[in-house]
User: Which sequence fits this backbone?
């Protein structure tokens, strides 16, 4: 009798797992224990808490198109930039994941939270002239 109960439970578990796997969309795989942090076209987590989450995850080489729960998995290289890179000014470059803490001639952040911000940022060796995010980027020694 107990063998029948164990066999029934085993069959139920197998059918549940197989049922969950079949709901995964293109470029996704079901995982019983996947990462809690989701990489998207606009966000790449640098630090992720080790929390086990079951569900459909993007296959290797793929990321979610957006942070929406039903967002499709796309190849990273097909991600579109949200901002036209031609609008970046002199000594600027477009980044999909730049720092939220901007260094200026009068301010150098000592501590900064880990946030991904997309947009135009000063190239290496350059800082914003002032705290206005549209101000020009100048070499540090020109401040």
Assistant:
């Amino acid at each position: 009798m107990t063998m029948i109960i164990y066999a029934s439970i085993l069959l139920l578990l197998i059918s549940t797992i197989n049922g969950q796997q079949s709901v995964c969309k293109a470029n996704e795989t079901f995982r019983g224990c996947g990462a809690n942090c989701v990489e998207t076209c606009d966000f790449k987590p640098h630090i992720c808490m080790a929390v086990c989450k079951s569900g459909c995850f993007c296959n290797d080489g793929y990321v979610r198109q957006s942070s929406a729960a039903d967002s499709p998995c796309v190849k990273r290289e097909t991600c579109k930039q949200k901002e036209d890179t031609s609008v970046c000014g002199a000594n600027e470059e477009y980044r999909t994941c730049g720092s939220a803490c901007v260094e200026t001639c009068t301010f150098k952040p000592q501590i900064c939270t880990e946030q991904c911000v997309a947009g135009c940022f000063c190239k290496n060796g350059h800082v914003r002239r002032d705290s206005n995010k549209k101000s020009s980027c100048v070499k540090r020694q020109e401040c």
